[in-house]
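Hello again, I could really use a second opinion on something today. I've been staring at a protein lately and its backbone has me curious. You're getting the sequence in one-letter code plus the fold written as tokens. I'd be grateful if you could look everything over and explain what you see. No rush at all, and the record is pasted right below:
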Amino acid sequence: YPPAARQRHQQGTVLLRVLVDEAGRVGEAEVAESSGYPLLDRAALRGVRQWRFEPGRRGATPIASRVLVPIRFELQ
């Protein structure tokens, strides 16, 4: 959670469009739907670029695919 967003009590969900390559790494990521807060949107993009995914498959062959990833920022 970005400290500045926490201080400002910003919450929301960012929907990211992510290209996952054949190895499960993020090739591209972009905001499909903003949370309404640029700090949260940027944090979501930074975070998802470090993730590893199970790649899509066609039969037994791994393939690149685009997926939508929701990331929710919620203060407790």
